[in-house]
Specification:
The chain is of the alpha+beta class and 162 residues long. The chain has helices at residues 11-26, 31-35, 37-41, 78-84, 86-97, 128-136, 143-160, and strands spanning 49-55, 68-74, 102-109. It contains seven helices and three strands. The protein is elongated, with a radius of gyration of 27 Å. The relative contact order is 0.10.
């Protein structure tokens, strides 16, 4: 006798099930909007914008519905271009939801992309590793090339000694 297998779920489905209620309560949006934002915003604004929240109208009477205001974070001067294209963006958002969910966009200028942290330079070599590196660089004549090889050698030989 074989038993039916339980439906397998992807981790992303489980995570969305946990995150969506929190996002809906705090920001009025869901992970589907965040995940599809690049397609909704288009090539011009995908890299410089991010949806922050949707403020839904309060005090609606039963049976009536009022669309909300979407707050979008935008980087720098691109906000001006976004202001001019907000009519088209509202149409794209509403077609994503399948109903008139947004009637206005509020633009907030702030950094959207995370700054890439540069790795710190490795500590200088000591002892035998430093002597070995100096021996390897003995025949190099150019100063810039010598410095580049020294940085590379310090990083490589420093990892071995750890």
């Amino acid at each position: 006798m074989s038993y039916p297998r339980k439906a397998e779920k992807q981790i992303s489905e489980l995570a969305n099930g946990l995150i969506d209620p929190v996002l809906a309560k705090r920001a009025g949006i869901n992970t589907a909007l965040l995940g599809s934002w690049d397609e909704i915003a288009g090539e011009d604004f995908a890299d410089c914008t991010r949806p922050e929240k949707i403020a839904w109208a309060r005090g609606n009477e039963v049976g009536t519905y009022k669309p909300g205001v979407l707050t979008i974070a935008c980087e720098g001067a691109r906000a001006l271009f976004l202001t001019h294209a907000q009519g088209e963006l509202i149409q794209r958002i509403n077609s994503f939801f399948g109903f008139a969910a947004v009637h206005q966009i509020r633009i907030v200028q702030k950094p959207v992309s995370q700054a890439v942290k540069r790795s710190r330079s490795p500590p200088p070599l000591k002892g035998e590793a430093a002597r070995k590196l100096e021996d390897m660089m003995e025949g190099i004549e150019g100063d810039k090339l010598r410095e580049a090889v020294k940085r590379l050698g310090t990083a490589v030989l420093g990892k071995r000694s750890r």
